Here is the input.
Amino acid sequence: MLLSSTLFVFFSYICNIDLFLECEIMKKLFIFALMLMLSMSDFALGKVNPDQAPDQNEEAEIGNFDFIYGKQANLNEAFEQTEMLMSEAFSHLGARYRSGGKGPSAFDCSGFTSYVFKQQADMFIGASSRDQYARNTPISRKELQSGDLVFFTSPRSGRGVGHVGIVVDVDPISDTFTFIHASTNNGVVINSSTDQGYARRYVGARRVKRC
Here is the structure.
């Protein structure tokens, strides 16, 4: 502001103040000097870095968007993998149950889950329900997602793992889920965690890490 005041006094000294304000050339000179002063003050206050590349901030913003879209791409890929997994599982609805059955025409519970993951992702998740429970990543019931493994007791397993299925859908509000599995009586079917035969038999859940 000191510079602008000095310039104003200088021009007023040379010209009558009324003439100065009416003089277009002088007005332009005064505005130019004022703009020069403001730009110099920005440098002085550190608002402008003369060594900074002009597109640095823009490049940083583009990098941020790449990071966001990269994560979105990973989410889309995971969704597609789960969709393919469930499609494979649903294709066997109605297949009959057979103890020790590994598919594709008949299954037991662990034979069904291992067959689905092998066909869709070429992954070995374990031979028996107990092996699958021990081999894969533990998760809480609140973390359940479509494609996770859920485990139950069976009449012959006592309190230990004796049955396994694949989560189809989750309702986080009611803390319930549906799952597809090879049941002893009905073959490959979809049941709810609230169904009488499974509500009190739930043991835990595991997530299969996919490459």
